[in-house]
Amino acid sequence: xxxxxxxxxxxxxxxxxxxxxxxxxxxxxxxxxxxxxxxxxxxxxxxxxxxxxxxxxxxxxxxxxxxxxxxxxxxxxxxxxxxxxxxxxxxxxxxxxxxxxxxxxxxxxxxxxxxxxxxxxxxxxxxxxxxxxxxxxxxxxxxxxxxxxxxxxxxxxxxxxxxxxxxxxxxxxxxxxxxxxxxxxxxxxxxxxxxxxxxxxxxxxxxxxxxxxxxxxxxxxxxxxxxxxxxxxxxxxxxxxxxxxxxxxxxxxxxxxxxxxxxxxxxxxxxxxxxxxxxxxxxxxxxxxxxxxxxxxxxxxxxxxxxxxxxxx
Amino acid sequence: xxxxxxxxxxxxxxxxxxxxxxxxxxxxxxxxxxxxxxxxxxxxxxxxxxxxxxxxxxxxxxxxxxxxxxxxxxxxxxxxxxxxxxxxxxxxxxxxxxxxxxxxxxxxxxxxxxxxxxxxxxxxxxxxxxxxxxxxxxxxxxxxxxxxxxxxxxxxxxxxxxxxxxxxxxxxxxxxxxxxxxxxxxxxxxxxxxxxxxxxxxxxxxxxxxxxxxxxxxxxxxxxxxxxxxxxxxxxxxxxxxxxxxxxxxxxxxxxxxxxxxxxxxxxxxxxxxxxxxxxxxxxxxxxxxxxxxxxxxxxxxxxxxxxxxxxxxxxxxxxxxxxxxxxxxxxxxxxxxxxxxxxxxxxxxxxxxxxxxxxxxxxxxxxxxxxxxxxxxxxxxxxxxxxxxxxxxxxxxxxxxxxxxxxxxxxxxxxxxxxxxxxxxxxxx
Lengths: 313, 430
Fold this sequence. Notes:
The complex is a heterodimer. Chain A is an alpha/beta fold.
């Protein structure tokens, strides 16, 4: 399959500061790809280089399996992190203009604009100036502007930041709709839970480098290690020293790497050594804890990310 | 750079502006404002009224004081009829035995506001052609001029009488004279009022100045609007900054040309003999200085030169800063370049071929306004026009290059206000 987007060793420095130090990424068609990383990791710079807003110092950008050509960008919908519209233009004129930027003629875009405005419940606002719209409405207009020309690739920089819950839902629905139609979506975020819920592929970027990338499920399986969720009746700890004693005893088990307290209902997370077997460990716990629940648990992205950053350093 | 992108941007710039109420309001109101600016001072000067209670001391013994008082009283009648802006109330005072003491007494009366000023006609002064004039304020130059000319009339009359001529003969010999002004140009000679020729040159220069400044700063505001609203982020993902800049400059330039064309058309229609004749009775054979096609062509050419010189400067300023407030300080730089010709309007119109006028027209940032003044007053030699326009074009080329380099970096820089060194570094980026 020809990848929709590919970056090969893309670099960018600003003066002495290395913003992006050689990023390589592969995004397949029909994939919802999350470009993850903390603020300042180089996500926006990477995206801007994809969009040809700034030129990389080294490396290449490929769209649709060949080196990027200017006309390729007409097949891309781009939502920048910093959003904005012409305040004095009417909603329709604004959208026609955004369509024209991507090669759409006025008469082609007008019916599409009408349909979109109806869909996001802005049907009555077409002739109003942007400055008369609420912030949430402006976000909707901006989103329409991003997808009006029916792009094959959507590139969105922090699309969820500053969105109200209604628009978050709207954006997510649109993402899944696009994915179902076989289109490619790449978006950046620094909020891991968000990415975890909707992405199927991720790229983790830290200090200008990709430290991890691939299918989310596969990454979790590979890096999640061997972890279990344990809930026990701590009063029945056996040693008479309550929870603290039970925790100490758990940590003392040779197969247990780490014990992490979970906030709620006295549950703990046990990170086992890679070769340890869950049922063996359970047998060792039962003598001193009244186990109510013991099950294999998926690691969350946050943990994977922290571990990956630590390993990379 | 893709032309189609520049066209999309230019179309937006043009349509949003021409469709706005502000454009039509400015198109209608600016000529009124201009008219007020040009005609106002002249009108005010002609209508300005001054009154002076003047004490006249005459120690010449030749009756000059009485004659002056009479002349000044005649002047008062002209004043009533609106022909003179100064009204004198002369008061003859006999010279006393002690001139020094009398001088002090007269000064005291000026301070006590018994009269506003005094003039002393002396025999010595008659020989040296100077009389003493005392007043609390000496900035009343129009009043002084008027008084001087009356004194000159009275003294000349007296001298001619001394030479043996009688009063009637003198009156017949000394009659005011006027110049019948005829403009000579390539298209033929025609009678024209000198003052209106001056007004035309002044007016055209001023229109050019206003349009360049107004549309130049619109470019700056437009660039800043895209930057502060962050629309720029989406646009730069679709096109090169050079296409955006080109579209913006050309679009706004077309708006200005539209406005200029409306004005020129209105002027041509309104100043046609048929319409003027309906309002003003023109002296036979006299016409208003009309806009010759050559002058109109140069007006548009000079506008284009001026617009691209200054709008690139304004675009550069807009791209470098983050808000109108920050940019405004630097926008003053543009004004520093455009204003000097306005300070030399008088000498340039009066002698359009002077070394001053010619050398100023070769400095590219002065060329548009100075050449407008010269062309409207008297068509300069073709080689000078060609040279000045060429220098201007080369400078515009340089400005566009410089602007494009600052622009492409500046439009995506937010936050800190850049220093001049930083802006220079943007220029040198590959």
